[in-house]
Amino acid sequence: MEILAFGVQADETPLLAKAFRGHHEVRCLDVFLNADTAPIAAGHEAISTSVNCDLGPEVLDCLAAGGTRMIAQRSTGFNNIDLDVAERLGLTVARVKYYSPYSVAEFAWALAMAVNRRIVRASRRTRDFDFRLDGLMGRDMHGRTAGILGTGRIGEAFARIAHGFGMRLLGWDVAENPACLDLGMTYVPKERLLAESDLVSLHVPLVPETSRLIDGPALKAMRDDAVLINSSRGGLIDTAALVDELRAGRFTGIGLDVYEAEAGLFFLDKSLTPVEDDVLARLVTFPNVLVTSHQAYYTVDAVTEIIETTVRNVLDYTAGRRSENVLVPRS
């Protein structure tokens, strides 16, 4: 059968074609799945989606009516999928439960170092042959405190890098990770972590309990000179509240690879269209803020693993097998 893959980046297309070769045909589309594009899937039993696709009730109804029976999401997150509606419609849904944690952890550290050492500002200056150091002073990470919210595979990888810098480690999670404890991490309440950390990095999934985890009061609890990094999900931060704190002159640096209203923006070229999102437009004007377009996972290692798992999910579906990646089983 032919698999229809939505939201495929140019670099991913040859990897998807190679991975499916000998199993199924795959047609890659650069458009994202939403109410307008869902009719394209008519006649395709299985489709593949990315995290910024819309799989709400209207889209799922359209997919089911068109004959789709299986959705293979190419991401760990699945907050864009209405699983209850998918189950009601008899749609099988699978995701990629694990992929290289190093891709995201290393990128989170790239953001942290870039904002701490003013790398972007320095690069822009030197392009204009301005070699002054004014305003570029950073801080050693050695001896300072890293607060890690979420200590699963990615949080653990981030903690190992922080440990290599010689940082004190604070953690917050629903369960303690023995590997992080071995690194010397101390688990504390969120409020204490925010108050004591020089660097705060988010590595938790977006679920109802973590939505706006970093809200106005949480931001006010942080140190004025803290660095905040989010390479997980945009909805973990109340961005409007963050802008208010930035306007008050707080924080050494903010590194965001995700944004709570990124759907319809990230992965697309919006350079020639007016910016309608006032919060994002304001956010990117601050000199101590660095925003990237959800690229932390985007290494050949991680993407290859994601695609290979996606292929296995489709093959499991056609063979009637169920794996740990299945969110809604075949009915």
Automatic annotation (TrEMBL):
<dbReference type="Pfam" id="PF00389">
    <property type="entry name" value="2-Hacid_dh"/>
</dbReference>
<dbReference type="InterPro" id="IPR006140">
    <property type="entry name" value="D-isomer_DH_NAD-bd"/>
</dbReference>
<keyword id="KW-0520">NAD</keyword>
<comment type="similarity">
    <text>Belongs to the D-isomer specific 2-hydroxyacid dehydrogenase family.</text>
</comment>
<feature type="domain" description="D-isomer specific 2-hydroxyacid dehydrogenase catalytic">
    <location>
        <begin position="8"/>
        <end position="327"/>
    </location>
</feature>
<dbReference type="InterPro" id="IPR029753">
    <property type="entry name" value="D-isomer_DH_CS"/>
</dbReference>
<feature type="domain" description="D-isomer specific 2-hydroxyacid dehydrogenase NAD-binding">
    <location>
        <begin position="110"/>
        <end position="296"/>
    </location>
</feature>
<protein>
    <submittedName>
        <fullName>2-hydroxyacid dehydrogenase</fullName>
    </submittedName>
</protein>
<dbReference type="InterPro" id="IPR006139">
    <property type="entry name" value="D-isomer_2_OHA_DH_cat_dom"/>
</dbReference>
<dbReference type="InterPro" id="IPR058205">
    <property type="entry name" value="D-LDH-like"/>
</dbReference>
<dbReference type="InterPro" id="IPR036291">
    <property type="entry name" value="NAD(P)-bd_dom_sf"/>
</dbReference>
<keyword id="KW-0560">Oxidoreductase</keyword>
<dbReference type="Pfam" id="PF02826">
    <property type="entry name" value="2-Hacid_dh_C"/>
</dbReference>
<dbReference type="InterPro" id="IPR029752">
    <property type="entry name" value="D-isomer_DH_CS1"/>
</dbReference>
